[in-house]
Amino acid sequence: MAITDIQAFAHLTKADIESFGRELDKVRTDIARSLGQRDADYIRRVIKVHRSLEAAARLLLCASRHRAPRIVGTVMLAVAKSIEMMELGHNISHGQWDWMNDPEIHSTSWEWDFLGPSAHWKRSHNYVHHTYTNVYGMDEDLGFVVLRMTRDEPWRPIHLLQPLTNLLIAASFELAIAVHDLAVERQHLGIPRARLGSKPNIEFAQKVARQVGKDFLLFPALSGRGFRHTLAANTVALLLRNIWSYLVIMCGHFPDGAEKFTTEHMEGETRGEWYLRQLLGTANFHAGPVLALLSGNLCYQIEHHLFPDLPSNRYPEIAERVRTLCDKYDLPYTTGSLLGQFWLAHRTVWKLAVPDRLLRRTCDDATETRSERTFVGTSLASGGRSIWQASDPLTGARRGLRTALAVADSSRRRAKNGRSRWFGRAPIAGER
Hints:
The chain has helices spanning 6-10, 14-34, 37-63, 67-93, 118-131, 162-171, 173-189, 199-222, 227-253, 263-266, 271-280, 289-294, 301-306, 315-328, 338-351, 401-424, and strands at 381-382, 385-386. It is mainly α.
């Protein structure tokens, strides 16, 4: 099941965890103090790129009567919308550029090109998700409420439809997130769903009307006789943006190695433990500069969760320091290829759609839901007692979760091979 004791799971002492937290605090301080003109130039440059792309795409779609330019315009519009959502809307709304004191590029004034109001999303995402990351029962982004992504959630027959539900979420990701954020906003204010005239409902309806009017009425109308072609192009661009943003989020939160936690862990959580939970609860994927821009630099999801309000263009240098700390404290740094991470997340969607009794792994050693109970019955314990040594007896190097997982996996492989040899060998005389 999910982690209830992060100290036991990480195989670090309380002092180690707090030291780890202080070193990450220093990373934050160093980056914050070094922010300056090059960072401001970066975000303004991205805004210009986005606006230029969108203007060129709209022009192609409105003016062209030929198929090839319309296809190019559709792709350009999808790219522009992805940049606006991921690198601009998401990151500006996190307050990453508030230090500039630019009224245009500020979390309190930026309204993104998205169905849901920014204010709703900031409460649901910035506060709830980033505070209670992957805590089952507290983080409503864990499985987007409708997907079963941890064995802590009891299986229900409706979960058999999970693979289909997953596809619907990918195609309608913008709408799914907007409706989810509206529900969190109503819940926070204590407003019943049936009160249609409530402030959150009115804000939501107004934003939907603006977005639908812009993408499905205004710009198609500007195309004149090309109304239907532009309408189709806008629809495809939105679909591509939905699928891409869904893929990025899945790769950052649900591949193997992105751990889940219980509410018991939250009791008395320290700053160091919060940092450790963010590190263990997220995952990265490999990306070059273009892919990083399109993903809003959420290819560095670990760094984003550690420092959600630091500018995204600094994540690569932050990542180097975080990886150094992971080596120092012997902690895993979960990363992989984009397709590899997506495959692991997608495998969990299919796996947890069926009852646990049909699965090969148990709830304590499943790769998608590990905890401190992962180490029970391995060579790390003897007679029910831990025989873990906090440092390597030969080198004196600190030993933490990375080594513990390697030892546990090796122990299981030896046990499995031993059973295979037992059942596969010829019987000895006198044996039954």
